[in-house]
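Schema walkthrough. Field components (list of strings):
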Amino acid sequence: MKTYLDCIPCFFRQTIVACKMIGLADNTTKEILDRVALKIPDIEMTASPPAMAAIIHRIIKEYTDNPDPFLEIKQKSNTFVLEIYPHAKKIVEKSKNRLLKAVEIGIAGNIIDYGAPINLDIHSEISKILNSEEEKIKNEDPACFAFDDFTSALRNATTILYLADNAGEIIFDKILLEEIKLEYPHINLSLAVRGEPIINDCTISDALFAGIDKIATIVSNGSDAPGTLLESCSGEFLEIWNKSDLIISKGQGNFESLYRGPGNIFFMFIVKCQVLARDMGRHLQDVILCRNNPE
Amino acid sequence: MKTYLDCIPCFFRQTIVACKMIGLADNTTKEILDRVALKIPDIEMTASPPAMAAIIHRIIKEYTDNPDPFLEIKQKSNTFVLEIYPHAKKIVEKSKNRLLKAVEIGIAGNIIDYGAPINLDIHSEISKILNSEEEKIKNEDPACFAFDDFTSALRNATTILYLADNAGEIIFDKILLEEIKLEYPHINLSLAVRGEPIINDCTISDALFAGIDKIATIVSNGSDAPGTLLESCSGEFLEIWNKSDLIISKGQGNFESLYRGPGNIFFMFIVKCQVLARDMGRHLQDVILCRNNPE
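Field assembly_structure (string):
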């Protein structure tokens, strides 16, 4: 997805939110905003928003001399979701359609996102989803919840690359990966994380914390963007990308950077931004499972 | 009111809205946003938001080589309100408390504001107010609708300076000025407008269109800010300011630039921005008639 004019105020809003979350004083935040502002003329509107988000967070990390300002937030999310993992796992095991429930829970986990413009009480949202076993979080519109299409893609896949999004969410991703592995044991699974800390996105340590290494090969994408900007990913990642016959992409950042580009991709995320909702013809908080549409 | 961090994303949002209203293409708007961004490091957070708004609109005027990009919008507002002037006037004339009704209608006119962050269907809002004669638009909380305090200030006044806000609204201001003149014929009235076109704010031509010259001396404040930044106002304006024993200030921009500063001022406006609402402990769309609180 290209950068829209309305993304520009949002870059500043995101900067303020991030600075507040990591406890910076207003005058420090203003100095960071000044540096972000000076980068605005460099934005190519054809680039996807995560390219600018990477620049913003590079500025925050450099200015605070802290390579991982969201570390504590990520650890809290991981611990929180790990505690509810057994409960979520039971819900899947009791379901008539285990894979569908695992997909739903996987997407529900995408509520954990500290970069998005909507404010949600993440703990209460997740509890709501898990405590209502009968609740269907999936979107009834097959155009944006292409589950049948997704399962037939899984049936035909031999090598899957799963692009993780946020810490905490990664433990819900594990549930989905476990179901895929159970139903299609022949599939070779890899899971990609960000190459460097960026907002609350997963890095290798979060994937290891979730125990992803027991079911998939963990790979760093080599980039510090909160998305998958192929041009800034490592050769190692691109090799796995090219060898995979199916890509499962979690989260809005990966969607923004990959949709309409190359790749046999299924996107799973919750719509958390009005600009993207408009671009897709969807609504805020819509649950999306959709196939890529290369241009 | 000082500039808050949350004003910074809003400066960009305001720029986009203004550029859209005057029909600029996205790539032109992006170039204007780039120029606005380069000014962000110059913002003093102790300055009031209208100081930055003036800079933004100087950039727009310079870039489009159009000294009055909102001219047509202002003319439309003036024509629209002039058409309903007789009806509004009748409502005041039929009221038990004519001055209160004129104040209410004067503040209602402040709904006409193309710089504010809330979206209102101005025509339908105004029709709603005028077609419901019994409707009290005033805020029931005396802390923010100090009508008794205002009337006693009027009784004691001999020279009033009225700071106008927007085109269109100026015709409602005329109704209020006419009521003040009727009730207190001894009072000497002046009305100040912006020194140069800025957004849809009143300049001398709008005040003349409204026929203000028949009841008050019209004065330019000599500044191009959408507020009253005393340090950038003309000597002629400051002389009248200093000679006036009561100042009536319309609109949020005048409030932002004058509140807590010097002056025996009553502010009348509708709260149209979350940051200001938070600063005042009020809510969006609250109707305000309050006395200045010099620090």
